[in-house]
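4.2 Preliminary Data

To establish feasibility before requesting continued support, the project team ran the inverse folding procedure on a target of 215 residues. The structure was first converted into the token representation described in Section 3, and no sequence information of any kind was made available to the design step. The complete token record follows.
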């Protein structure tokens, strides 16, 4: 089967993408209100796996792996941990900063509007800073959200909590709809199916044996 002229870096990049686990089906079965802990564990595991795959993919892309030696391998692992740790720290700092700002500032009768705005803007700021410094934006936003849920959440009013919960739930629902529509329309491109027809069978078999081997 002809899969093209791929180098070792291409194989590692493909392996990094395929190593991400899909927890979407599991989350659809679980009920967040009935099993909040289990839902959080499955969701967090899926997000961290996806973010780790992206970080590993970016780390592989930054190196010329045509000639691999011990120094290149150490640099690859060092770059991976550099991206992972800094992305996590940036998210934690942004979350703590949002908690501190909301706790110290007094918003008066406009507290709900401004508290919700600060939480959204701080999360978006962490994403933009992560992209600016070429880090993992997904990992940064994820840990920023974790810190906000533990600290910022307890510093806002009850009305702000309700508003934030429904606002992010609405944005999440709209984003999911857009993704499914985009993927569905992109699947109608015949040229892409012609290009990956033989590779789909090969990739599916390798993915099946990879998952089956891990039990």
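Position-by-position output of the design step:
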């Amino acid at each position: 089967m002809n899969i093209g002229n791929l180098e070792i870096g291409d194989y590692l990049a493909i392996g990094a993408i395929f190593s991400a686990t899909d927890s979407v089906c599991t989350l659809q079965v679980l009920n967040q209100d009935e099993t909040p802990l289990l839902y959080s564990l499955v969701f967090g595991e899926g997000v961290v796996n996806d973010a780790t795959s992206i970080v590993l993919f970016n780390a592989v892309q930054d190196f010329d792996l045509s000639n691999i030696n011990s120094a290149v391998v150490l640099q690859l692992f060092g770059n991976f941990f550099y991206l992972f740790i800094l992305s996590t720290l940036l998210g934690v700092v942004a979350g703590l900063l949002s908690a501190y700002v909301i706790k110290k500032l007094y918003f008066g009768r406009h507290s709900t509007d401004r508290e919700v705005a600060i939480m959204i803007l701080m999360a978006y700021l962490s994403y933009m800073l992560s992209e600016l410094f070429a880090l993992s934006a997904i990992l940064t936003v994820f840990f920023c959200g974790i810190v906000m849920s533990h600290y910022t959440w307890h510093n806002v009013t009850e009305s702000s909590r309700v508003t934030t919960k429904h606002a992010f739930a609405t944005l999440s629902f709209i984003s999911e709809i857009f993704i499914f529509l985009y993927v569905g329309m992109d699947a109608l491109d015949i040229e892409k199916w012609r290009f990956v027809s033989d590779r789909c069978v090969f990739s599916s078999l390798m993915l099946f044996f990879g998952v089956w081997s891990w039990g």
